[in-house]
Amino acid sequence: MKQTYRAMQISRPGVLELVERPTPAPGIGEVLIEVEACGICGADTGDIEGADPAQQPPRVPGHEVVGRIAALGEHTPGIWKVGQRVGVGRLGGHCNECVQCRQGHFQLCQNQPFVGASRDGGYAEMMLARATGLVSIPDQLDAEEAAPILCAGLATFSALKKSGAQAGDTVVILGIGGLGHMALQYARRMGFRVVAVGRGGDIVQDALELGAHLYIDSNVADAAAELRAMGGAQAIVTTVAHATTVAALMGGLAPGGRLVVLGAGKDPLPVSTGHLVVGERSVQGSITGSPYDNEKTLDFSVLAGVRPRIEIMPLEQAAEAYSRMKSGDVKFRMVLTMKPASR
């Protein structure tokens, strides 16, 4: 094993710096992962721009990590072996002790780290991870295509399962970007009548190819009115955090329908209580999911042929790759590979 490894750390807010670090040894219940690929997620923006090196050592971002186990710490469960393909998502491993864990709600554990924020992530050749956060990666998926499924895939797959919709129901995906392009694929393969809602006509062909039966451009049409004319949506999954945009679409929910919120923002969501009460509509938040949920998402992706649309750049170009993601100059996900740029 190499004595050092390369990593992209946040030297100051908004700035990524390529550094060489000593290879760490895994602690109790941890594994050392030799990273092969790491997706760049929109949530990385908060970690990178909001970092405060004065409060903690320079952090390595990234939470869509795929690689192989290089070393095992003490008391690591026997299901994990050196050389095994594994992944780690945003949730860095539950504690097995808190009330939520005792209830089996591992995704709600109050004592787990957020990978790339409260512990180092995958913009690096090596990474430590809690064994409770590990996800087994199917052989049918390349590292680069599996990486975004660990966050964008899991988040949208879980949200659709929580939506209350059944095969044949109308399901709306609001926002056709890094999350939305995965949601469209899953929704179509789950048997829903899929409506994509976005801004502008430049995305319509992509939306239809990804699985939408219908695309509504909210710049030129009243999307809620169009949904009501169709009988209303049983579920709306919003991948955008703009509260006004989300609220404007709520009028398109059918009685008994549910808004599932994935896009997290700071602004309050204005909701008419009358609209909820009359028609028994509901609003639900959805976090990504547990490692088990992640493995189910990966298995479904293999079974149904769902894959993220990605662009790949080498680790040493992480700053450029991050900048392109932040500016929206990516269709639809950016992934870092740990292979040298010459290969």
Automatic annotation (TrEMBL):
Its cofactor is Zn(2+). SUPFAM superfamilies: GroES-like, NAD(P)-binding Rossmann-fold domains. Residues 14-336 form the Enoyl reductase (ER) domain. GO terms for cellular component: cytoplasm. Keywords: Metal-binding, Oxidoreductase, Zinc. One of its GO terms (molecular function) is metal ion binding. CDD domains: CAD_like (cd08296). It comes from the Bacteria. Pfam families: ADH_N, ADH_zinc_N. Belongs to the zinc-containing alcohol dehydrogenase family. This is Alcohol dehydrogenase catalytic domain-containing protein. It comes from Duganella vulcania.
